[in-house]
Amino acid sequence: xxxxxxxxxxxxxxxxxxxxxxxxxxxxxxxxxxxxxxxxxxxxxxxxxxxxxxxxxxxxxxxxxxxxxxxxxxxxxxxxxxxxxxxxxxxxxxxxxxxxxxxxxxxxxxxxxxxxxxxxxxxxxxxxxxxxxxxxxxxxxxxxxxxxxxxxxxxxxxxxxxxxxxxxxxxxxxxxxxxxxxxxxxxxxxxxxxxxxxxxxxxxxxxxxxxxxxxxxxxxxxxxxxxxxxxxxxxxxxxxxxxxxxxxxxxxxxxxxxxxxxxxxxxxxxxxxx
Length: 274
Hints:
two-stranded antiparallel sheet
C-alpha cells in the first residue's frame, strides 16, 4: 500500500498460500501441540496486518549505505546488546518511550520499543490504537495508517475469528494476550535523517482461559523498520515483516490457562534500549 510519500512502504509478508485456494500453508504438526489452532490464530493476525499493508515492493529492505558498522565483507558487523552508559531515551509519550538520540543506538532503541507498541493488545482498542499510531509513525503517514488499521481492527468478523468482542474485549473469564518481546536489533543503514533497523522478536498471541479455542502461542518474526528523523525524534515511515529466525522448541509442558493468565497479568513489559 502506498503511504503517499517517497519513503518505503509498510508491508507484511503473508505466508505462501496453498495452490489454488488462497489459504495460507500450514507447517507440519509437532508432537504434543495443537498446531492447527496455533497456526490458525497467527495466520489470522498476519493476514489482517498484511491486508492493511498490502501493496507493491517499492525497494524496501536494506537501503543504500552509510552505516559505520559494516563488516569487511560488506555485511553488518554483529553488535552485542550491552549497556553503553548513554541514556537511550529521555521520556515517554502516552506510555511509549520517545525522545531518542540521533545515533545508531537511538534508532535501535526506537525500533525495538515501537515494535512492542505495535504488537501490544492496545492495538485492539480504538482510542489506544490511535494514540500508538500517532506516537510511533511520522506525521505524514500516521493519518493513513490510522484509517487503514481502524478498518481491520474494528472488523467484527476478524475480531470474532480471534475470539474477541466487537469492542476488542475478550470473553468473560478470558485474558487476551498480544505481546512482542524483542531479542535483538541490527542497524542495516544509518545516513542523515534516515535509518533502517531490523528487530528480531518473539510474539505471544491468543486467549488465556479455561475452554479457550485460541490458546496463547509463540511465534518468531523479524521486522525491518524504516525510520525518519522528524521533529527531533525517530519515527516510522514503513516496515516489512518476515518469519523467523525460529528456534527449535524444547519438550516443555505447556502451562495451564490459569498459569498463563497469571503470568501475563503479573509480569510487566520492558523498555528496550541499547
